[in-house]
Design brief:
Length: 395
């Protein structure tokens, strides 16, 4: 079951996207709807709210005056925290029940306004943010919902910033245009990424790039992509992963690279990576095992064994190398990354070599093979650099 976290600031239009996904076949778990259910008359949460904020937050018919309560809590962070302490446990309980009862062979979309604020992005295979400029959101809240402008701005200020949402997002849907344009963007995402991702997840298929060599200029986005993947792996493996790091060329700012994120998981013993619990946890999180026998060609002339997983997301290819923590291969990956980051001369030499290869080779497999002699020679230089600088792998 593919889990999609859908979020966006108040007035952004995420509910419109949720309805579009639902019409396309998704099961939508609506956090706002659940939040209303748990404070209906007769519920414990409503009694606790009245106990904290007084009967003034009730309407004449005994229901919660949500707008009135909103004006109180969105101007007072302590009051907001008190309200969340009352409502969130009830919301999470109902949410867990709804998620558990969703179809196992399908896409579940969790429409949740505060997904980023609660640092829950690692719980989902894909996080979609609906993005709308703040002034437009304020206009919608004032014109469509009848809010006071200052009240609208207070509510926006109490939520995550745009920068925080961008960092958490696998996908950003621009809702600065028409409703029809937003519908089209949601449909394109559903057909082009969500459905293929769901199929790969159910079948245990690793996404791969075509065997056609293409180098990309360095992108800041690579670091953000790696951080999100690392969060999901850590959530899936817990203490089974002693370390999870971004390695390879995309981990070196300024270096050209294939658009593939390389990550390294350090484990106590490779036999742990072969246990069903490890493999199942990685697969469920969206990182199936790549079959076959995998190793690195060690600088000592020996094979350095490892296990390899990939990403089921068709739009973010990743190679996930599982090595024993502290092993020669594990240390080499971290040393090489840090050497490239620190030594501009070595980095420029490696980039010239990569560009030269890309000018005469067309297949990724040939490119990988052609780099082996360079790595063999670079091993001594990397060791010399680490000796001069006192480099040690991170604890």
């Amino acid at each position: 079951m593919l889990r999609v976290g859908l979020t966006g600031g108040i007035g952004s239009g995420k509910s419109t996207v949720a309805k579009r996904f639902q019409a396309l076949g998704a099961t939508v778990v609506d956090a706002d709807l659940i939040a209303r259910e748990v404070v209906e008359p007769g519920t414990r949460a409503l009694r606790d709210i009245v106990g904290r904020f007084g009967v003034e937050v009730l309407q004449a018919d005994g229901t919660l005056d949500r707008e009135g309560l909103g004006r109180i809590v969105f101007e007072d962070r302590r009051a907001l925290a008190d309200l969340e302490a009352i409502t969130h446990p009830a919301i999470w309980e109902v949410t867990a029940t709804r998620m558990a009862s969703a179809r196992r062979n399908g896409v579940v979309v969790h429409d949740m306004p505060i997904l980023v604020e609660k640092r829950l992005t690692a719980d989902y295979h894909l996080v979609v943010v609906v993005d709308t400029p703040e002034d437009e959101r304020v206009r919608r809240l004032v014109d469509d919902r009848g809010m006071d402008e200052q009240d609208a701005r207070n509510r926006i200020a109490a939520q995550a910033s745009d920068a925080e949402r961008y960092a958490a997002a696998d996908v950003v849907l621009d809702n600065s245009g028409s409703r029809e344009r937003l519908d089209d963007l949601a449909y394109e995402l559903w057909e082009g990424r969500i459905l293929p991702f769901d199929a790969n997840l159910r079948l245990g298929v690793v996404s791969r790039r075509p065997d056609r060599l293409a180098l990309s200029e360095s992108r800041d986005q690579w670091a953000h992509d790696a951080e999100r993947l690392i969060g999901r792996i850590r959530r899936a493996l817990g203490e089974r992963a002693l370390s999870v790091d971004h390695v390879g060329s995309t981990a070196v700012p300024g270096l050209v690279a294939k658009d593939v994120i390389d990550l390294q998981i350090g484990v106590r013993d490779l036999r742990e990576a072969d246990r069903p619990a490890f493999i199942d946890a990685m697969t469920a999180a969206g990182f199936p095992r790549s079959p076959g026998h995998w190793w690195d060609s060690g600088a000592d002339g020996k094979e350095w064994p490892k296990r390899v997983h990939g990403n089921a997301d068709p739009a973010r290819v990743a190679h996930i190398h599982v090595r024993e923590h502290g092993s020669d291969g594990w240390v080499w990956a971290l040393r090489f990354r840090d050497w490239m980051r620190a030594d501009a001369t070595a980095r420029e030499s490696y980039e010239r070599f990569k560009r030269e290869l890309s000018g005469r080779l067309t297949r990724t497999a040939d490119y990988a093979s052609a780099k082996e002699p360079w790595f063999a020679l670079a091993h001594a230089d990397a060791l010399s650099w680490s000796s001069r600088t006192g480099w040690r792998p991170p604890d």
